[in-house]
Specification:
By secondary structure, the protein is mainly α. The protein is built from seven helices and six strands; from the N terminus they run E-H-E-H-H-H-H-E-E-E-H-E-H.
Length: 168
């Protein structure tokens, strides 16, 4: 969504409920590691199909050396226009985010997603999302603003920087 848009507690609940409904493939009220793995594989396949379609400029079902070279040249141009940065402020290819999430069954919303039980319920997801919302809502007015998000981001960056400095 729009990172500059304000978000209320009710919107967080509605968003979690929509996501949970999409993730709980068998509608049993539990999102399991198995469902996460299947969802991850489905998304990976969709990503690969989109990537292939971008490379296959003439839509003939194969990628020629010319199409591949043309794509590489276009990517290099876009990178040069951005000043050589990778995606999102220098995190090459978004690797940092994938590592943080830990892939299917990995870290999510500030803790182990599935815990000992091997699944997470909609209420547990709501609880975690609202706890995160409450940490961001600095003025406790029930709405998180872009300014509050940026301030929280800067606090996290400061903590990470402090940890890095203390380790080195």
């Amino acid at each position: 969504g729009n990172r500059d848009a304000e978000m209320t507690r009710q919107q967080v609940i509605e968003r979690v409920d929509r996501h949970f409904q999409q993730m709980d493939a068998n509608n049993d009220g539990r999102f399991t590691r198995e469902e996460a793995g299947a969802q991850h594989e489905r998304m990976r396949g969709e990503h690969m199909q989109r990537a292939f379609a971008r490379l296959d400029a003439n839509n003939d079902g194969s990628i020629s050396r010319e199409e591949f070279s043309q794509h590489r040249a276009q990517r290099a141009e876009r990178r040069a226009e951005r000043g050589g940065e990778g995606m999102r402020g220098g995190h090459a290819g978004g690797r940092m985010m994938r590592h943080h999430r830990g892939g299917p069954g990995g870290q999510m919303m500030g803790g182990r997603m599935f815990g000992e039980q091997g699944f997470v319920t909609r209420d547990q997801m709501r609880e975690r999302a609202l706890a995160h919302f409450d940490r961001l809502d600095a003025d406790r007015n029930g709405t998180v603003t872009a300014e509050e998000r940026r301030a929280a981001h800067e606090r996290r960056r400061g903590r990470m920087r402090d940890r890095t400095e203390s380790d080195g």
